[in-house]
Write a structure and sequence with these properties.
The chain is an alpha/beta fold. About 40% of the residues lie in helices and about 15% in strands. The structure holds NADP nicotinamide-adenine-dinucleotide phosphate.
């Protein structure tokens, strides 16, 4: 069997087009959706991510406001800026690019963002809403994965699903979303015994680890749907996922590529969240 490719880039394109249409409708009524992005310091990867987010906004008719702050910015200054953005009615979403410099407490920064502008879905109120099934913003990566699974026709109710990784931004919210979709969910992590015994049971396997090509074909159940969240560099510097694409595609029924799978969907879901934040205000 050669797995079908789940094309995240194409799905993200169509989502962006839908966002653009709805953003234009809001703008026509005099309420353009606005996203504020704060970058502290000059980390190269963070600068690229922020540039992409601003570009995505431009292409989708969302007004973006980028605030670049120098590395030594005191935490109190950053918190004051966030409070000002919380009070600004033209701003519907606030995103502080992580990681932050070591002298700033990222948790305190995230908790200062108003939950109704928390378009990254990292605020404890958003996490609590997800946990208890209340409306709230979903973290963009697991939200995008759920869209990819729907697009791939995954039947989640009652299915064995395995998430490898338990971070607050991917693994844990991913597991909760799968549970909400009535899947049977197993979460694996660095202390799990016999990882392969778990992954081989999965009808849907989601890898969010950060280790290049660690999920190999022999770890995958024939016919499984495999979603690769990982974004790593291999020993030659090439971008690759947590999944060994070549061996897994011979076993799985469907698989996301890296690049072109989860990454573009994460970007698209930020636009969706920002638009929804703006629509909720109207
Ligand atoms: P993270 O915070 O470092 O978490 C990694 C998780 O993997 C941890 O829970 C860790 O377990 C687990 N883990 C580590 N080694 C393991 C092993 N040998 N076996 C099983 N589990 C193991 O990473 P993250 O932020 O969730 O990101 C994960 C990957 O996704 C990274 O490659 C990141 O770049 C990528 N990512 C991509 C996107 C995108 O848009 N495509 C978005 C976010 C992240 P412990 O908890 O026990 O340490």
């Amino acid at each position: 069997m050669t797995a079908a490719l789940i094309d995240g880039a194409a799905l993200a394109r169509s989502l962006r087009a839908q966002v653009a249409e709805r953003a234009a409708a809001l703008t026509a009524r005099g309420h353009p959706p606005g996203l504020a992005v704060i970058l502290v310091g000059s980390d190269a990867a963070s600068s690229v991510y922020v540039r992409n987010k601003v570009k995505d906004c431009e292409e989708s008719g969302i007004r973006s406001v980028l605030q670049r702050l120098p590395e030594p910015t005191p935490e109190t200054d950053l918190l004051a800026r966030i409070r000002a953005l919380n009070a600004d009615p033209s701003i519907h979403g606030i995103l502080v690019q992580l990681p932050l410099p070591a002298h700033i407490d990222a948790r305190r920064v995230i908790e200062t963002i108003s939950p109704d502008k928390d378009v990254d879905g990292f605020h404890v109120a958003s996490a609590g809403a997800l946990m208890t099934g209340q409306p709230g913003f979903l973290p963009c990566t697991p939200y995008g994965v759920m869209r990819l699974l729907a697009h791939a026709g995954a039947r989640l109710a009652g299915a064995e699903t395995v998430v490898v990784g338990r971070s607050n931004i991917v693994g844990k919210p991913q597991a909760l979303l799968l549970l909400q979709a009535d899947a049977t969910v197993t979460i694996c992590h660095s202390r799990s015994h016999n990882l392969v015994a778990h992954t081989r049971r999965a009808d849907v396997l989601i890898a969010a680890v950060g280790r290049a090509r660690m999920i190999t074909g022999d770890m995958v159940k024939p016919g499984a749907i495999v979603i690769d969240v990982g974004m790593n560099r291999d020993e030659t510097g090439k971008l690759c996922g947590d999944v060994d694409f070549d061996s897994v595609r011979e076993v799985a029924s469907a698989i996301t590529p890296v690049p072109g799978g989860v990454g573009p969907m994460t970007r698209a879901m930020l636009l969706v969240n920002t638009l929804e934040a703006a629509e909720r205000k109207r």
